[in-house]
């Protein structure tokens, strides 16, 4: 009976404690993520192309690897940077490369598109400080 009371008290205290916020994973202050290819202004015929992603002063590892100065790539397509304290969404505008890829084949519909890279930690949350590339534009024909 006493054990059940302790569990009930713990459950009530936990319920009213509010959401738990984990500390963000540390990034090297001089880290840089960038596009190797395509370059800003590239015209792509056919819609399918290889994206090559670069990273300086940090390492790339698959999702789930929890270490400072380690992360994996996310590519933002036709969207703005998400809130840095939350996991990066996973949808058609937020492509995850959680296996630790540094290159990937993607397909975009015809038109003008913006691309930006954002490094995420083991839980897909941007680092502190956040590591993101400049936004580039590509044209798909």
Describe this structure in words.
Residues 51-141 form the DUF4399 domain. This protein is mostly beta strands and 141 residues long. The protein has a single domain (24-140), classed as Immunoglobulin-like (Sandwich), CATH 2.60.40.10. The chain contains one helix and nine strands. The chain has one helix spanning 2-16, and strands at residues 32-37, 43-44, 48-56, 59-60, 70-77, 94-96, 103-107, 111-120, 136-140. The longest helix has 15 residues, at 2-16. Residues 1-21 have low confidence and may be disordered.
Which characteristics define this entry?
141 residues; mainly beta; Immunoglobulin-like; six-stranded mixed sheet; 1 helix; 11% helix; 35% strand; elongated; disordered N terminus; DUF4399 domain-containing protein; signal; DUF4399
